[in-house]
Structure formats: C-alpha cells, structure tokens
Amino acid sequence: MQLASLGRLALKHTRNAFAEELYISSGRDITRPVAVYAIVNERCNYKCRYCEYWRLPNYVEEMTAEQWTDALLSLKEFIGSYHVEFSGGEPFIKKGFLDICRACHENGIKWGVTTNGSAFSEKIVKQVVALKPFNVNMSMDSHLPEIHNYARGIEGSLEKITTGLKLLIEERNASGQNFPIIIKPVVHRLNFRTLPAMAEWMQTTGATAINFQPVDRWTKETWDELWIPPEEIPELTEVAAELLRMKRAGAPILNSETLLSCWDKHFREDKAPEETMPCRVGMRNYFIRTNGDVEVCWHFPPIGNVKTQSAREIWYSELGRERRAETTACTKLCLYTCLSQKTLKDKVRMGLTLLTGNRGKGKPGHKLVATRANAAENGGGKGRSIGLPILTGAGRD
C-alpha cells in the first residue's frame, strides 16, 4: 500500500470526521460517503454454513458491468477519487467482474475485493494483479482443514485458498506491488479457540494482516451450532484478550481494541456500549446492492437506486436524511467489519498496520515452527479438542 494513497484516504476521513461531528451537534448535513461497498452478485460456489446466498430459491437482478461502471463514475463525480470494496456472493464468478475492476483502474478509482479464493488460478491472478488492486481480502475460517472446510461447506477448500494465496503473493511481489492481502475469518463456536494460533500461522504465509468478523444470526446453523453460548463466553473473552495482547505486541491484527473487547457483548446480544455511540454508518457508508439499491446499513431500507439516480441525489435525498437520523439513534451492537464503529484514531491505526503489515515475518510456504498453531493442530488449548466433536456439537435440533 502506497503512503501517498493512504494519506489521501486519511484526508477524506478527517474531513468526514468533522462533518460527522457537525451533523451530530447541529443537524447540518455536509457528510459524504467515505466507505463504499459493492455487492456485485448473490451467487456463490461455496456453501458457507452462516450464509444464505447460496441457498436462495431466486436471485435478484444483477447489474451489468456497464451499469456498475456508470454508478461508480457517478460516485466519483460526487466525492472524487475513492476506494470501493467488491464482494458477493463470490465476485469472480460474475460475468464481467474483471471488466468492472478494469473500469475502476482506468478511471482512477481504487478497488479491492473480498473473495473465497476459489477462482485464483494462475491466469486469473495475473489479470487481477495487472489491474493493481488496492487490497485483496481472502475469506478463511481456519488454518485447520477440518474447521475451514466444514464451515465453508466445500471439501478441499482450505488447500485451494492457500494455493491461491501463494499464487497471489508471488505475482504481487513479481510485479513490484505491495497491496495488502488480508485474511478474514468469521468468528464462531467452531473456530474461536484456535484464532490466536491462526493469527500466528497467518504471519508465516506472507499475507499482510488478519481481520476477524464475529458471526451474525442469519441461518439455521448460526442458531444451532455456530453461535457461542453463554457458558463458553468466558473462554471467548480469554481468546479476545490474547488477541489484544498479540495486537499490542505488534501482530498485524486490524480489529480495534474497542471491538475486540466487545466480542462477549456481541454474543450476549447486548446493546452497543456508550463508547461506541452514536452509530455513524449512516454518515459514511454507501452500500450498492446487486440490483443497484443503495443502503447505508442493511438493517434499514434503501435510500435510492443507482440505475435511476446520481450518487449525489441518492445521498442527499429525503430517504438518505431519514436514514442518517435513524442510524445515529440506533443502539444495536454491530461487529460486522463494514458496520462496526471505527474512530478516526482507529482508522489511523488500521492504516499503519496495513502500511507496515507483515513484513519479514514469513514467506509463502514457510514451515511452521513449534507455536500455538502446532498445539492447536494436535488438539491443544486447555486440554480441549477442536476437532470433529465440536464440529458436530449440540444444537437446538
């Protein structure tokens, strides 16, 4: 990640931090989107147990690459250069997805993507790196195949993603680029005890950083087997404390200290603590859905549609202003990484973590030494196995 690019983003966030405070204190609205997300499809080739997309009976209409380009250029006309984070479904199975990325590259829009890595053949990796991504996030639930493959619903998927990760790092390095590659695990009952070991393992792969995301209750499995029950929350708190210690010692963990300390509150379904309020997503987030609907938070209805309105019209519409009022009054604790609260200080720290990243702490294919990762692979950690007994743990069936 280039320091100049990071600096320009910092200026935008600083400007919007002022605009947010002005809105909160006076109601005057000069906010603009600073966090842009684009969900290009709902279709996916994986069967993650906490996701509903792959089992939908019908899919909403997908915008074409040309419609996506028009929408992203309209946003650039409104706010200037920005970073858009693409996701799905699985973005790389969408026809024309690389054309959308190419349009971003050619028009000065920084782009990143969150992917399960299944499409990362040598050919696709070369095409991706040639378009100079701002970041690549790779969804991975564990460094242990029995956990990752089960949670993702595809046998052999861990081997596939680690192979794709290696190809990506090699091509990035060969091209002289330094964009961050971020590992994104979903935190749930099957993997939480192994997360410190995963954070150590990640540093041996050559990836830049790790960003944990607690599971939310969307599917039957999230109720029956993935949600962390009250009796296990003390262990979760210990894990979060260990990750916090690792972060303070220099481990490339992106989550803020405040959010790591909120994991227990999330699984107890508490309201957001006072120090994270008011919620600011309505003053900064711009989610473009597969069909062109724009949301500031998926817990609230859309504020417009990019196929019929410009980005400026959408943001300052009556619906947009209503959502900002509603979201700033919301007390729900959201730890999903794109909804979670981040102060300006948190953003600076995240930027510094990405800038310094995982330099010199591991190479692709580097062999693990005797760390917690080895202990976890051998059933270590408080004498509790993390293997199949937990994977088939008691639910509410």
How far is the first residue's CA from the last residue's CA?
A: 47 Å
CA-atom Rg in angstroms: 20 Å
The shape is: globular
N-to-C series of helices and strands:
HEHEHEHEHHEEHEEHHHHEEEHHHHH
Rounded average pLDDT: 86
Low-confidence segments: 360-397
Largest sheet: 9 strands, mixed
Q: Which structural class do the helices and strands define?
A: alpha/beta
Report helical residue fraction. 40-55%
- Spatial strand arrangement across the major sheet: 7-5-4-3-2-1-9-10-11
> Could you tell me the number of beta strands?
11
Q: What is the number of helical segments per DSSP (H or I, 4+ residues)?
A: 16
- Provide the β-strand percentage band: 5-15%
Produce the secondary structure layout:
Blueprint: H1 3-26, E1 35-39, H2 65-79, E2 83-87, H3 97-106, E3 110-115, H4 122-130, E4 135-139, H5 145-152, H6 157-174, E5 181-184, E6 186-187, H7 195-205, E7 209-210, E8 213-214, H8 220-226, H9 233-248, H10 257-260, H11 263-268, E9 285-288, E10 293-295, E11 304-305, H12 311-315, H13 318-328, H14 344-356, H15 372-377, H16 388-391
Parallel strand pairs: 1-2, 1-9, 2-3, 3-4, 4-5, 5-7, 6-8
Antiparallel strand pairs: 9-10, 10-11
Helix pairs in contact: 1-14, 2-3, 4-6
Would you give an account of this structure?
This protein is of the alpha/beta class and 397 residues long. The protein contains 16 helices and 11 strands. The strands form 2 sheets. The protein has a 9-stranded mixed beta sheet. Strand 10 and strand 11 form a beta hairpin. Helix 4 packs across helix 6. The longest helix is centred in the N-terminal third of the chain and has 24 residues.
